[in-house]
Design goal:
single chain, mainly alpha, rod-shaped
């Protein structure tokens, strides 16, 4: 009987969602990136729009690579 009890305790548990934060970050990056590119186009190359576009592109890249997922 002890082996049966161990088998019940040793069953696999549900895995937690690990990469959800990077997925949300990537979706936000995909939303912000076109807005930043339009801002760059309209302003003629503003520094703030360039920083926002770079941060959005980095967020999309991190979500694509997903270092926290499996």
């Amino acid at each position: 009987m002890p082996t049966r009890r161990r088998a019940l305790l040793a069953r696999p548990h549900a895995t937690a969602e690990v990469g959800l934060g990077t997925t949300v970050l990537g979706v936000l990056g995909l939303v912000v990136l076109p807005i930043a590119l339009i801002g760059l186009l309209l302003s003629g190359g503003g520094l703030v729009w360039g920083i926002v576009a770079g941060a959005a592109a980095l967020a999309v890249l991190v979500a694509y690579l997903d270092p926290f997922g499996r």
